[in-house]
Amino acid sequence: MTEGTAEPGPETPIAEKPRLKEYEGEGITVTFEPRRCLHAAECVHGLPEVFDLSRRPWVLPDAATPERVAEVIRRCPSGALQYHPPEGGAEEAPDVPTTVRRSPSGQLVMRGDLLVMGAHGARHETRVMLCGCGASANQPYCDHSGPCAAPDDDVAEDR
Questions:
Q1: Number of C-beta neighbours around residue 83 at 10 A
Q2: In angstroms, rounded to a whole number, what is the distance separating the alpha carbons of residues 121 and 111?
Q3: Which of 28, 72, 106, 152 lies 20 to 30 Å from 62, alpha-carbon distance?
Q4: Residue 47: burial class (beta carbons within 10 Å; 0-12, 13-18, 19+)
Q5: Tens digit of pLDDT for each residue in 112-152?
Q6: How many CA atoms lie within 13 A of 87 on its CB side?
Q7: Distances (CA, A) of 155 to 2, 110, 131
Q8: What b/e string do you get for 12-36 counting C-beta neighbours within 10 Å, with b at 16 or more?
């Protein structure tokens, strides 16, 4: 964590423990948290040979190089997609400096060295879209259930 990062304090409850789906490949493991996906489609547009919604499993990590898979996953604004290299490999580095911006529809789009508090404890994150309207059933993450249900406007080229 970077200097000046807030210590854990009171937590906002999350309705249920996060459920992760794991897709293991030779050089990279991809994890997906469905409740956080806001359908920005950075994955399916960026690497359709790996991410294909019409196929089961929809993620084939070995269909591209681990470096390319990691590059596309880092475009996922919500952090629903994450990656883990084999033991000893480089984990995703947080953006420096940490950035926070409010999207036109109200979400807080954050990238950097983050500590997100929830009912199931603190989670270290590098990319999140937090609820800005208070209507999300997946607090503190946005789930598009309130006024922020507008189409995703977090475009990779705008970051």
A1: 22
A2: 20
A3: 152
A4: buried
A5: 999 998 767 899 999 999 998 888 888 899 888 887 666 55
A6: 0
A7: 27, 13, 18
A8: eebeeeeeeeebebeebbbbbbebb
Residues 6+ away with beta carbon under 8 Å from 79: 33, 36, 125, 126, 127, 128, 129
The pTM score is: 0.78
User: pLDDT tens digits for 10-60?
Assistant: 444 444 567 899 999 999 999 999 999 989 899 999 999 999 999 999 999
Tokens of 101: 């911006």
| Residue partners of 128: CB distance under 8 A and separation at least 6 | 78, 79, 108, 109, 110, 114, 116, 141
Look up tokens 């006024």; give the residue: 147
Q: How far is CA 103 from the centre of its chain?
A: 16
Q: Return d(Cα 48, Cα 87) in angstroms, integer.
A: 26
Q: Which two tokens stand for residue 141?
A: 């993450």
Strands 99-102 and 29-32: unpaired
Helix (H) or strand (E) holding 21: strand 21-24
Task: Read off the tokens for 47.
Answer: 């690497």
